[in-house]
């Protein structure tokens, strides 16, 4: 295992060569904002919230999807990055109908936490107010597309950990939606095992447990990483 040495916010850091900037930063105690990234799942660089500056290039890098390199000088916090992150958050809020006051994930929502952390007190963009559905055809869970930020954590948790690949993404741009099977109601899915990993992975109130009321949905994110670790270490093989 080769080790790379780099600086993150002026701090000298050593990381494994397969580590991303995000992982190296977290291990060094530097928290880079992230929404589509979650421990245990393959990073896809979808939300761009983890953008960082790299000395020597004007191009911002997605920390979750960029591997460390020897001698890198990374800046994770600057007025420019703060402004970009705030703008990304505002665009996410403008794209769907996020009404925190009536959301099951109120106070336990990563999008909401991120908005507070970045001082987002209003949205400068025009709201799209799309007409989106809520699917509660599954006997235990539901999905409210109004709250989905298309991070694809549900898609990856279902495919990579459960191996069911019930979730996928259909459409492009503002018309993109997460779908179950061939875009049929969740309750009609032949592949869903009702394991609930997508519920644990969702950063907002989009995928929820039925019966949860406002502000009731707390999730256990560590469950995904725990399952991945246990499988890699063959902890359940006797
Ligand atoms: Fe890196 Fe979303 S966390 S792009």
TL;DR of this structure?
This protein is α+β, with helices and mostly antiparallel strands and 238 residues long.
Labels describing this entry:
five-stranded mixed β-sheet, single chain, three-stranded antiparallel β-sheet, 6 helices, binds FE2/S2 (inorganic) cluster, alpha+beta, Ubiquitin-like (UB roll), 2 domains, Alpha-Beta Plaits, 238 residues
Descriptive notes:
- This protein has 238 residues and is α+β, with helices and mostly antiparallel strands.
- The chain has two domains: 3-77, Ubiquitin-like (UB roll), CATH 3.10.20.740; 83-232, Alpha-Beta Plaits, CATH 3.30.70.20.
- It has six helices and ten strands.
- The protein has helices at residues 21-27, 79-95, 110-117, 153-162, 197-201, 222-232; strands at 3-8, 11-16, 51-54, 61-62, 73-75, 134-135, 141-144, 167-170, 177-180, 207-209.
- The longest helix is centred in the middle third of the chain and has 17 residues, at 79-95.
- The radius of gyration is 19 Å and the shape is globular.
- It starts with a strand and ends in a 6-residue tail after the last helix.
- The relative contact order is 0.14.
- The mean pLDDT is 95.
